[in-house]
Every structure is written in structure tokens, then in C-alpha cells.
TrEMBL record:
NCBIfam families: excise
Coiled-coil segments on the chain, per record: none
Protein name according to UniProt: Helix-turn-helix domain-containing protein
Record InterPro entries: DNA-bd_dom_put_sf, HTH_17, SinI_DNA-bd
Length: 97
């Protein structure tokens, strides 16, 4: 068993780079699709622009500022909507099951 200068055991992996070992990095949702304004995102999500702006400030929704305007993508909105905990949404706003 090979041991390096620090006394650590060196292991050799026989794994190959096939589908089982091919880990893809997570893709940034801001790079998927076209950029839309927070107003367009609010209409898409069924929320208000101010609500989305608060989510952006808290880091819950991925967005970026271009000049004076905040923009995001539908993919980022979808990612946020999927991450929400339904227990924190009032019953009257939950989607029927």
C-alpha cells in the first residue's frame, strides 16, 4: 500500500468517466432563456413586483441589476417557485391538490 511523505495512504481509483461518474455542475438559472423585468416575472408568477423585489433583496430569487432595472429569467422564477415551502403559504393562495 503506497504511503506519501505525510503518512497518508494513497489510493488509486479504477473508476472511469462514464455516465455514473459524470457529475454536471448546476446551471445558473440567469443564463437560461431571455432576461425579463421583475414586472414581467411578477405577472408570470402571479405575484407582485414588490414581492419579487423583496425576494431578490433577501437572496431568495436570482436576479441581476442592469442599470437601474432588476431583471431575471422565467427559469429563475420557476426555481424559486419550486423551492417554496407550501406550509408557509396561506391556504387561500395554495394551488388545489
Amino acid at each position: 500500500m503506497p504511503i506519501d511523505a505525510f503518512g497518508f495512504v494513497a489510493y488509486h481509483s479504477t473508476m472511469t468517466n462514464d455516465e455514473t461518474n459524470n457529475i454536471q455542475p448546476e446551471q445558473d438559472p440567469l443564463t437560461i432563456g431571455e432576461l425579463i423585468s421583475l414586472q414581467e416575472a411578477a405577472e408570470y408568477a402571479g405575484l407582485t413586483k414588490d414581492t419579487l423585489h423583496n425576494y431578490v433583496k433577501r437572496g431568495r430569487l436570482r436576479a441581476k441589476k442592469i442599470g437601474w432595472m432588476w431583471v431575471t429569467t422565467r427559469a429563475a422564477v420557476d426555481e424559486y417557485l419550486q423551492s417554496r415551502d407550501t406550509k408557509s403559504i396561506p391556504n387561500k393562495y395554495r394551488n388545489p391538490a
